[in-house]
Amino acid sequence: MTPLPKKKHAKARTRTRKAAISFSPPTLVTCSNCKELKVPHRACPHCGFYKQEAKDKKESAKPNGTE
Question: Where, by residue number, does the polypeptide cross the bilayer (predicted)?
Answer without folding.
Answer: none
